[in-house]
Amino acid sequence: MNPGSLGVLIPIIGMMIGFFVIFSRSELGRALAHRISGGATDSKELEGEVRELRGEVDALRAELGETQERLDFTERVLAGGKKEG
Questions:
Q1: pLDDT per residue over 50-79, tens digit each?
Q2: Residue ranges covered by each domain of the chain
Q3: DSSP for the chain?
Q4: Model pTM score
Q5: How far, in Å, CA of 24 to CA of 32, rounded?
């Protein structure tokens, strides 16, 4: 191997090692290590969360539907009052 090319690789390798050290200490690095080691979240736990969130979305949709009906009624009342007056 050419000694000149070795001189170029040393700083690059040093920067890569520094990057990996910093990454491994970050939240993302710890989460990735946890996932790789088989500590992923239980799928039943995720299914329960999804079911709960779907229930909340359905409740919000129902409330929004009610609100839209009330708005439509209010608009009709206000429009009817202007025609008579």
A1: 999 999 999 999 999 999 999 999 999 999
A2: 1-40, 41-85
A3: --HHHHHHHHHHHHHHHHHHHHHHHSHHHHHHHHHHTT-PPPHHHHHHHHHHHHHHHHHHHHHHHHHHHHHHHHHHHHHHHHHH-
A4: 0.45
A5: 9
